[in-house]
Write a structure and sequence with these properties.
The chain is an all-alpha fold. It has 2 domains: about 50 residues, Homeodomain-like (Arc Repressor Mutant, subunit A), CATH 1.10.10.60; about 140 residues, Tetracycline Repressor, domain 2 (Orthogonal Bundle), CATH 1.10.357. Helices cover about 75% and strands about 0% of the residues. The radius of gyration is 20 Å and the shape is elongated.
């Protein structure tokens, strides 16, 4: 059973990777399940065993990305150096923004505008990640690690919107200087979160 489950996971990953390539080449709307089958070098019967539609594949991709993002965010929770941890996470997030990953993100976002099921998937993903970010920020504020006086949920969504904007630029410009983008984002993050300096009592002026 363990071997069978492992094979199934490999097949799912193979199909998801092939679908991402097909969506990038033809667009989500233009790519067919047959295109996915060809890209995966698998028969339609084999592909449909795991995914019944393109939307099912998008949902699986979103769930995978959501799990990875939440796992990374959870590493920040409880750390005494909450801002430094978020800064490290910023560097990792920007490093993972490859042109193809960003182009796929833009493609799925565009499809969400006209496809109600994809819109629901994207909305659920956004709500889960924003909720986790907001919880991490609340925890850091309650422990006196940051002095942010803004609504954590609103801050989380603005941060996500900013990252989405960077992904759009990266999709359009493969030569975008991501190191500089990350530096600016960290500066914005510091201004918004207002991390407390060690040795300075919470609530005192800098």
């Amino acid at each position: 059973m363990v071997v069978e489950n492992g094979v199934a996971e490999q097949r799912r990953a193979q199909i998801m990777s092939a679908a991402a390539a097909a969506f990038l080449r033809r667009g989500f709307h233009g790519a067919s399940m047959q295109d996915v089958c060809r890209e995966a070098a698998m028969s339609p019967g084999s592909v449909y065993r795991y995914f019944r539609s393109k939307e099912d594949i998008i949902e699986a991709l979103a769930e995978r990305d959501q799990a990875e993002s939440i796992e990374l965010l959870e590493t920040v929770r409880g750390r005494a150096d909450a801002f430094d941890a978020l800064a490290e996470l910023t560097d990792e997030t920007f490093a993972r923004m490859t042109p193809s990953e960003c182009a796929l993100n833009v493609e799925v976002g565009a499809e969400a505008v006209r496809n109600p099921r994809v819109a629901a998937i994207v909305r659920r993903y956004t709500d889960e990640i924003a909720g986790t970010i907001a919880d991490v920020l609340r925890d850091a504020r309650e422990r006196g690690r940051i002095e942010m006086d803004l609504d954590p949920e609103a801050v989380a969504r603005i941060l996500m919107a900013t990252l989405d904007g960077v992904r759009m630029q990266r999709a359009l410009d493969a030569d975008l200087d991501m190191k500089t983008q990350a530096e600016v984002f960290r500066t914005m993050l510091r201004s918004v979160l207002r991390p407390r300096e060690e040795g300075r009592p919470s609530g005192t002026a800098e």
